[in-house]
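Final report, results section. Input specification for complex C-07:
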Amino acid sequence: MDPEFFEMLAMPLFDQLFNLAQWLTGNRTDAEDLVQETYAKALKGFRSFEEGTNMRSWMYKILRNTFLTSRTGLKVQNTVLLEDEFDGLDFAAHNITPESHLLQLENSHSVMNALAELPVPYREMILLSDMEELSYKEIAQVLAVPIGTVMSRLSRGRKMLRQALLAGSPGRSTHAM
Amino acid sequence: MQCSYAATMIDAYLDGELLPDQAAVVQEHLGRCMRCSSEIAEIARVQKSMRSARGHYAPSAEFRRKVQRQISRPKRRGWLFWTVPVGVAFATMILLTTFAWVGNARRSAAFAELADLHVNALSSTNLVDVISTDRHTVKPWFQGKIPFSFNLPEFRGTEYTLLGGRMVYFHQHPGAQLIVALNQHKISVLIFQESMELGRTFMEPAALDRRTSFGIEAWQSRQLSFVLVSDADPAGIDNLARLLKQANE
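Structure output:
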C-alpha cells in the first residue's frame, strides 16, 4: 500500500493501540515508547501491508512483536510459561462454584487489577479476545501461535482471573493452578 | 459426554468458535449438567467484565500529536511530489504566454508597417505613380514591375473611385498599392505574393490596429495576399474587399 494512506488508516487505531500497549507494559512511559515504535515500524513496512487484510490485526502484530523485544517484553519471554497443552482444565474451578457469587465483578477496580496482575501470555490472550474481541484465528495470527494454543491459554487465563477475583480470599488465588 | 471434555470446549463454545456439530454436543451437555452450566455462566460474567478494560488507558493529546507529526512525513514528500508538475505546468504556461505575446507583437508590428505604407502614400507629394480612374490603365502599368498580376473590379457605378496605383515594398517583397477613394476617405489596397511572413500576419482575418485606429482587412486568394488599410468605416472597407474578392476568384 502507498505510504500516503498510512496515516489515514493507522491514526484511527491510535487510542486502541495505546490502550493495549499500556495493558501490556503496565505504565504510561513504556506504552508511549511502544506505540511510537510501532507506528514507525508500521510506516516503514506499510508497502508489505496487503489491501483488504485487517489493518488492526496487522498493527497489533507489530505492536506485540515490538513489545516482545522491549525491556519489559524480554523479561516476559524469560518467565517460564505454564504448559500450553490443553490439560483438560483441572476441575478445581468447580471447587469454587459455591463462592462464585462472591466474585468481585461489581468492583471494576479489582477486576482491572486482577487483569493487570495476570502473567503477560494470559493477559494478552484475554485482552485480544475479551477486550478487543478478535476471533481465535485473528489472535493466532497476531501472536503467531496455533489456534489450539489460543484456546488453552485463553481458557487458563480466564480461570486464573476468576481465582484472583475470589472475594476476600487472596490466598485461594493459587489454589486452582 | 464427560464434564472434563466439555471443559475443554466451554470457552470456545462461549466465544462462538465451535463448529455447529461440536456446539450442539456442548449445548446438549450443558442442558443436563448443572456444574458445567453454572461454570459457563461464570466465565461469561468474567468475560463481560473485561470490556471495561477497553479504553481504560487514553493517550495524551500531546503524544498523539507527536506520533502524528512523525508519520505524516510521506505527506510532505507527496507535497513535493506535486510541486514539480505544478511548477512545470506554470513554467510552460509562462512560456506559451510569452510566445503568444511575441507572436502577437510581431503581428501588430506587421500591421503597423502595412498601415505605414498607407500613411506614407497619403503624405507623399505624389499619391500615386499611375494616375487613372480606369482599371484598364492601372493594371497594365504594373506589368514588369511586380512578379504577379491581379484583377480589378469595375468601380464605375459603385461608391468607390480608383485614384491610381504605386509600387511598394513589404519585407523586401515588391507589391502593388492601389488607392481607392470612398467619399473623402482613401483606402489602400495592398497586394503581395503570398509568403510565410505574410501568411503569419494574415492568420487573423480582420483586425483593427489600435495604435493607428486604421481599419485593416486582409485575406488571401490564389497565392496573393490582399490587405486593405483605411480610416474609412468598416462597412466601406468590407464592401471594397468583397468587390476585390469577386474579381480575383
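The CA atoms of residues 55 and 138 of chain B lie 103 Å apart. Strands of chain B lie at 130-131, 160-170, 173-182, 185-193, 206-209, 214-221, 224-230. This concludes the modelling results for the funded period.
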